[in-house]
Amino acid sequence: MGVTWLAVAAAVVAAALRWPRALGGMLCTAAVLVPFLYILVCTLYPAWGDAKCPRCGKEALRRPRRGNPVGVVCDSCGFEDPELYRAYLDEMR
Ligand SMILES: [Zn+2]
Question: Mind listing the pLDDT tens digit of every residue in the chain (93 residues)?
Fold first, then answer.
């Protein structure tokens, strides 16, 4: 098993060395940047949720029943809408 992976790694290195310099550099940059961007997007994603209340305008909306994706309640003014859908309210808290 270990020998197989060594052979695969050697083949990858050999292929990388044979590619033109620009293409190899581009692939290396992409290999470094893609996981970094993925982590960055995952970190920032919950912040995109919209908790703004349609009545009072404060960021105080929450879900009345945790885990149920439909329905919101405002902690600030008491606004309630069982039909309104807002993404990521659970994930923001
Ligand atoms: Zn409100």
Answer: 677 777 777 776 777 777 777 777 888 888 888 888 887 777 766 556 678 899 999 999 888 887 777 889 999 999 999 998 887 776 655
Name the phi and psi angles at 65, rounded to 5.
Answer: -120, 115
Distance (angstroms) between ligand 1 centre and the Cα of 69 equals 19
Are 72 and 58 in contact, with CB atoms under 8 Å apart?
no
Q: Residues with Cβ within 5 Å of ion ligand 1?
A: 53, 55-56, 74, 76-77, 79
Distance 55 CA to ligand 1 centre (A): 5
How far is residue 33's CA from residue 8's CA, in Å, rounded to a whole number? 23
Q: For residue 59, how far is its CA from the centre of ligand 1 (angstroms)?
A: 8
Centre of ligand 1 from the C-alpha of residue 31, in Å: 45
